Amino acid sequence: MSGNMKDVYGKAKDNYTAKIKLKSGILFVWFLLLTIICLLPIYILVINATRSHSDIANGLSFVPSHYLKSNWNKVFTDPGFKLCYSAFHGYKNSLIITVCSTFLTVFFSALTAYGIHVYDFKLKEISYSVILLVMMVPMQVTSAGFIAFMSDLKLTNTYWPLILPSIAAPAVVYFMRSYMKSSFPLDIVEAARIDGCGEFRTFLSIAIPMMKPAIAVQAIFAFIASWNNFYTPNMILISVDLKKKTLPMMVSALQSSDKFNDYGAIYLAIALSIIPIIIAYVLLSRFIIAGVALGGVKE
């Protein structure tokens, strides 16, 4: 009997080990496939930046070519190209808008989440529900009224309508509050008050350092969204010259231009436009896993 049970338990253990190995293998293949799907467009973009226009027209290739220097010269010296694209002004304008809007988004969203989480006041939950309700309204629904309002304020063709609205970011507030509910005990605030620390100083000196993973994650998302934003700048910057346009506007002008159709140079211009996003991700990526895991805790 005991021999039969040993045989039975031995088979069960072998089956369990085999199931774990099979599950690990399936997950490895699945995540490898997802990684390839995510990175393949970027790889093709970089490869095409090194190829000539005729090579790109002839078909897809995964091997880099030797036309990078000629494409580089076209991007920065070709007179026809300069009518639509200026890397220096594009980087400068996009960085001004992106850095300012990212800072406003994470700072004021953290401040709003801190106020809702720490303080008890009337209509607290209702105000939070209103913030979540605003999150459901897409930008396209309010764009006509937004443009008319900015026109009345004489703010079209300026960067202010692209920076100041980033103060109100309901999705970031929701994430920040979820993060604070899971990892920010209120006892710390009470201890700071007993020690004589002011309310705003408590937020700056205690809350902000404890929220660094959540702030880093949302900073990456806000940076990418603002850097790639073409819709709103294209509505606000309607009659500015090339020196005031953002990088996505210049890339879009290149793709739609009938005067310049060198796809090798266009791919190089697009590849140059994603470099700041890669740098921001590399600098802040170590915070992503911890921040997303804690911020994703259900209320």
List the helices and strands and how they pair.
Layout: H1 2-49, H2 53-58, H3 68-77, H4 79-82, H5 87-118, H6 124-135, H7 139-152, H8 160-163, H9 170-183, H10 186-194, H11 199-210, H12 212-227, H13 231-236, H14 247-256, H15 263-273, H16 275-284, H17 288-295
Helix pairs in contact: 1-15, 3-15, 5-9, 5-12, 6-9, 12-16, 12-17, 14-15
Characteristic key phrases:
299 residues, mainly alpha, 76% helix, 0% strand
Summarize the structure.
With 299 residues, the chain is mainly alpha-helical.
Major sheet description: none
In whole angstroms, the N-to-C terminal distance is 52 Å
Helix content: over 70%
Beta-strand percent range: under 5%
Number of distinct helices: 17
Inertia-based shape: flat
Low-confidence stretches: none
**Secondary-structure-derived class:** mainly alpha
The overall average pLDDT, rounded, is 85
The value of Rg in angstroms is 26 Å
Provide the succession of SSEs: HHHHHHHHHHHHHHHHH
Oligomer state of the chains in this structure: single chain
- Could you tell me the number of beta strands? 0
Can you give a write-up of this model?
It is built from 17 helices and no strands. The protein is mainly α and 299 residues long. α12 runs antiparallel to α16 and α12 crosses α17 (288-295). The longest helix has 48 residues, at 2-49. The chain is flat, with a radius of gyration of 26 Å. The N and C termini lie far apart (52 Å). The model has no long low-confidence stretch (mean pLDDT 85).
